[in-house]
Specification:
This protein has 247 residues and is α+β, with helices and mostly antiparallel strands. The protein contains 4 helices and 14 strands.
Length: 247
């Protein structure tokens, strides 16, 4: 009986003084913007777009510096010139590393930032991500940048609107993991928090009618403060584009 009492006492001490406080500390680390946040983007027509699967905590400059250092190109704005450029590049199989991405909407507005990594010589295939800035900030006054990361596998006609578009790969989790790994390797993350069950549905279709599936987790990367590094020596910054777009 005494041994049972000792075991129960040990379990209680472990749970009360180690396990539960750790769980509460982890919960408190959640950015306030996550509570009640949307989980999926919308097209201009109000159709469900790509699912949110990544988020970054930090200033706009820190997001830009980190993505550049990880080898991502900021996407050009959608203009007549850039639209003609990407159409020509797809047909002629010419490189266009900072090709525009179509607009998706969150919080009633299009993406604030968009980045991509080309694959091969044609913009038909590329890794890309869109980010939207939250209105809420944390204790350090940092917003949370919700992101939808997907892989464009080919160009073609939308299954829902018959418009020319990119079709995405159904595997969206590897795109999320690719960004987190790249930022970690570039030394721009201080921590990564995983929000389990963020996506209420693990399968769906985006605005182009492309199916996707996910494990439902949201990866939240905590970016290093600008005081932790010198922008003058950001890895790869001199190799990227000279200016950072907002598409």
């Amino acid at each position: 009986m005494f041994h049972l009492f000792v075991v129960l006492l040990f379990v209680w001490l472990l749970v009360a003084y180690l396990v539960l406080p750790a769980l509460w500390r982890r919960h408190d680390k959640r950015h306030p913007a996550i509570e009640g946040a949307p989980t999926i983007t919308l097209t201009a027509n109000g159709i469900h777009g790509d699912p949110l699967n990544i988020a970054l905590v930090g200033s706009e400059t820190e997001v830009q510096q980190g993505m550049l250092a990880a080898g991502w190109f900021p996407a050009d704005a959608i203009t007549l010139r850039s639209s003609l450029h990407i159409a020509t590049a797809i047909v002629m199989r010419h490189e266009y590393a900072d090709a525009p991405v179509s607009n998706l909407f969150l919080f009633g507005r299009k993406q604030d930032l968009a980045f991509e990594q080309p694959v091969g010589k044609s913009p038909s295939q590329r890794h890309h991500v869109r980010f939207w800035k939250s209105a809420q900030v944390d204790e350090e006054q940092n917003p949370l940048w919700f992101g939808a990361a997907t892989f464009d596998s080919k160009s073609g006609f939308s299954h829902t609107t018959a418009q020319i578009t990119h079709h995405i790969s159904p595997e969206v989790d590897p795109e999320r993991d690719r960004i987190i790994s790249g930022l970690q390797e570039a030394g721009f993350l201080t921590d990564v928090n995983w929000i389990d069950g963020f996506q209420p549905q693990l399968t769906g279709k985006n605005g182009g009618g492309d199916p996707y599936h996910t494990d439902g987790r949201l990866a939240v990367g905590i970016l290093k403060s600008q005081t932790d590094y010198s922008p003058a020596v950001v890895p790869g910054a001199s190799e990227g584009p000279e200016s950072i777009g907002s598409e």
